[in-house]
Amino acid sequence: MKLSASDDDLSVTEMADLMGGSAQKQTVLGHQAVLYSDRTIAITLNGSKADTGPGGIARCLMGWTAG
Asked: pLDDT tens digits for 31-46?
């Protein structure tokens, strides 16, 4: 899970709208947050060769704090 904080002027509703239909508004430890899914990339290292491909799904939580 990726956990990040935002200090911009976007509200939870505005950020959820930007993230698309899969974003969910939540309350985490008393603070507004948006939970959404994102893609990852797989990197395979084999000696002197490297390869990339699709990875798994990451669940991301973006939170807001009072400043």
From this structure: 888 888 888 999 999 8
Beta carbons of 4 and 60 less than 8 angstroms apart: yes
> What are the pLDDT digits (tens) for 4-28?
666 667 777 787 888 777 888 888 8
Structure tokens at 14: 């505005």
User: CA-to-CA distance for 62 and 16, rounded, in angstroms?
Assistant: 10
CA angle (61 as vertex; 54, 7 as ends), nearest 5: 120
Note if the pTM is more than 0.85. no
Task: Give the domain extent around 34.
Answer: 2-64
Count of domains in the chain? 1
Q: How far apart are the first and last CA of the chain?
A: 24
